[in-house]
Every structure is written in structure tokens, then in C-alpha cells.
Amino acid sequence: MHKVEGTLNLSAGDLVGHLNCRYLTKLDLRVANGELDKPTIWDPVLEVLAERGRLHERGFIEHIEAGGLTATIVDGVGVDTKSLDATSAAMARGDAIIVQGALQAGCWNGRVDVLRRVETPSRFGPWSYEVIDTKLARETKGNTVVQISLYSDLLSKTQEVEPISAFVVTPGTSYIPEAYRVADYGAYYRHVRSSLERSVSGAIACDPYPEPIEHCEICRWRRHCDGRRRADDHMSLVAGISKSQIGELERHGIASTAALATLPLPLQWRPDRGAAKSFEKIREQARIQVEGRTRGKVLYETLPVIAGFGLSRLPQPSPGDIFFDFEGDPFVGNGGLEFLFGYIYSDGQGSDCYVGDWASNRQEERGAFERFVDFVTERLKVYPDLHIYHFAPYEPAAMKRLMGRYATRENEVDGLLRAEIFVDLFSVARHSIRASVESYSIKKLEPLYSFVRTVPLEDVGAVMARTQARLEMADTAGIPENDKTAIRGYNRDDCVSTAGPAELAGDGT
């Protein structure tokens, strides 16, 4: 979003941003109007994502050229007269493939990854073009649809004929484009586009708030928005609170975490949605968070023991216990890849042993899965009272998925699940203690049991992103051993830390 001679120009990035967050649109508009400086954030993870996108696009172009087609590349960055003229000239010549074609219609413009010639008449002659966009697998479908719909719309204005389909190429598909019929998404695209146009024109009189959403993880404004929420003491900082609860509390005059922390109990009004107990629970969570930040330390208090929950689900310790953690990437191929099976166990002599079984492909994933199940099966013969501890429900769900994927070790995995060998320490901790944390992730709880990581968390993000990029691009040979070592160290920390919530819960008995 930027102004040229007083006219606001919009792009596909603005459309995708608006689809995800109206507040983002508001901030970008202020930048375009000169009211706010554009944020400058260097994030190694986002740098890796951007580089992965460029590598994926380059790989697709090389794939096309290997098939005998010649690609015309439109030079430059952004959309200007030179790039528009170069694109129009290539289309007029009927070039088979146009890379980074520049398109513009009214205030809208964009650069398309690939324009592919099809034999449908247009103003250029007995041919026209369709859009192909290269996307990383982790892009959401909604973002993809509005982007290729905009490009197809701009293309129809340029060639004076509407393309029937647009295509998306994601990693792990052998560069086979997935077709989207443009007309099927026309109404959705027009709705989002109209909403953005009305927002920037001032036709929509609203003041959106930067609610925390998934898009925050990759947004350049995330620090700005997090700072505002903290300055406002916004109730989204309360662990476990829902958006509907925030809305109802605001309707009753509760406007901050501090105000929620002093809300009289029992509740003086009947909630429109949900039970009064759920509001009392988040009130108590707000109370301990406010107390924790006032005292400058992480606090916790034990909760009453309830049969079937929390401490009552914690089995007696066994010398055969295993502490287990996966590292996975859901965007590798079709169905993801569990690329590291990590677990800690005692060798019987009082020493902890760590196994970090790496899997770079499906064959190795199957082998790692089978080795882990076989290890547990044999260990159960020696320690029939052992349990496998994990934090959050991902691990048993992944085990069931792997069992189904490879049709192996079905009886063994089924037996582990039926015997409740897996113990979710997130559920145990969540129903055993109340802590002054903004989320009950294991990393937020670690100060309570004085756990110190050997691999700093700030060092892991870029390494993990690089590794996942290589896995998604099937370039496992390109993963440096140093990166594998760092991820194994991070995973080992997770496995050792997993024992902490059990110890913490045990302290509260």
C-alpha cells in the first residue's frame, strides 16, 4: 500500500493482510498517509521463509524450462511503467511463459509468479494467459484464493478475456499445478476486495483492535500490536480466555486484566454464553497473573483435587518411565513428517539416556516409529508399570497417525493407548495448578521448576525454519549437521523439561 501522486495503490499483499486483520490495514494506511513509520523488523525465521519461497519459485521455473519451454523474465521490483510495458510486450508476442509479469488496473497492481500461455483468443491474438502462483505449503487457502483471484482479475483487464482457471504450485507435488476455477471464488474475492476498498476510503466507520491471531506470527506489526495490548492491559493477555468471554466482560464494563482480577465473586450476572464457573475461572487466572507481575516472579497455587482430573491422573513414578517429544513439520509432502523422535529414559544405573532418532523421509520415519514402539514394548517386559510422559496431546495422536500410515505395529500401539501408557502432563498441570503465566506451554512453566535450557530458545527459531525448508523442498542433503545437532539439543531440553510438570504437580500433593 503506497501513494503515487496522491493516489493510493493497492496490491495482493494488502488484500491478504486485510483478509487476516483489519487493524493491519489501518496501520498500513497510516504509513501510506505519512502518519506512521513503517516498522523495520529483522526476523531470521521470516528471512528463511522468504528465501524458501524464492527457491520454490526458482525450482518451478527450472522445471518448466527442463520441459522445453522458454521463460521470459520481467526484470525489476514492483510495478512501474517499464515492467508493465515489458509484460504487455511479452503477452503481445505470445511468449509461452512470463515470469514476474506486472499487471495493473485502476488502483490495483501486482507481480504474478508465472503467466502461462493457453490457446484461448484474447485481444493479443488467438492466445491468452492464465495465472500460476508458487506457494509454500503453509500458506492458508483463503490467502491463496484471494491472491490468485486478484491476479486473474487484473489479467482479464489486460488481455480483455477472463481466464477460466488459476493454478497454485506447492512443494512436494512434483511441480504439478493445482487448479482453481476462478468463477467459483469470484463472490468471495469481490467481498474481501470491496471491504478493503471501503476501509481505505473511510466508508467503513470502525476502529478495529489488534486482537491476537495466527497471522501475528508473520506480521511486521506484531511488536507494535503486542505493545499496544500490554499498554492497554488487554484481557487477551489472560491465559485461556476466549474472544467471546472478552466481549461479554467488556459489555459488563470490564476493560482490562487488572479490572478482571478484581471482579467480585460469585459472578453478579448470568453469562449470555457459557457457564458462570468458566468466567470465575478466568477471573482467578487474571488475579494470579496480576499478582505475579506485581511481584515480578512466576507464581503458582495448587487447585483442589478432582477425581479423574489433574493429580488424580498422575501415576506412581516408575524407573522405566519415558519422557517423549516429537519434532515434526506438517507441511512436508502429503500429511507431514515427524522428523525427530526424541525420548529420555533411565539406564537403570541412575543415568539418563537420550535418543534423538532423525528421519529425513518416509522410509526413515517408518523406521524411527518402529524402533520407538519396539523399544517401549521391550522395556515394558522389564518395567510393566512404566508410562510415557508427553506435554499436550500431539504425541499419541501422531503415533496413531503413523500406525495408520504404515500399517505396522498396530497391536502394540493399540495396547499402549488402551492401557493409558501415555500421560499428558499438560492436562495434569492445567488441572493441578494455577500459574501467573499468559499461556500454559511447557516453556512458560519452566521457571516454576527452575529448568535451564542448554540450547537458548532464541537460537532455535531460524535453525528450525531452515531445516523445515529443506525437508519441504526434499533437500535433506542440504541440512547441515550443526543444525541437526542444535535441534537435537533443543529436543533433548524438551524431553528433560517434560519431567518438570510431573514433579511440580507432585510437590502440590
What is the total domain count?
Answer: 3
Q: How many helical stretches?
A: 17
Strand order of the largest sheet: 3-4-5-6-7-8
The largest sheet, given as strand count, sense and whether it forms a barrel, is: 6 strands, mixed
Structural class: alpha/beta
| Straight-line N-to-C gap | 57 Å
Shape annotation: globular
Which percent bin holds the helix content? 40-55%
Q: Would you identify the regions where 5 or more consecutive residues have pLDDT less than 50?
A: none
Report the β-strand fraction as a percent range.
15-25%
CATH fold node name of the largest domain: Lambda Exonuclease, Chain A
CATH architecture classification name of the largest domain:
Alpha-Beta Complex
The number of distinct β-strands equals 15
Mean pLDDT: 90
Radius of gyration (Å): 27 Å
Any idea of the CATH class of the largest domain?
Alpha Beta
Would you write up a description of this structure?
This protein has helices at residues 12-20, 22-32, 44-66, 81-93, 141-159, 186-201, 222-232, 243-251, 257-261, 276-295, 362-382, 394-406, 410-418, 425-430, 442-445, 460-472, 481-507; strands at residues 2-4, 7-9, 71-73, 97-105, 108-118, 128-134, 165-169, 178-181, 300-302, 322-329, 337-346, 352-358, 388-390, 422-424, 433-435. With 509 residues, the protein is an alpha/beta fold. The chain has three domains: 2-201, Alpha-Beta Complex (Lambda Exonuclease, Chain A); 233-295, DNA polymerase, domain 1; 310-507, Nucleotidyltransferase, domain 5 (2-Layer Sandwich). It has a six-stranded mixed β-sheet with strand order 3-4-5-6-7-8, sandwiched between helices. The chain starts with a strand and ends with a helix.
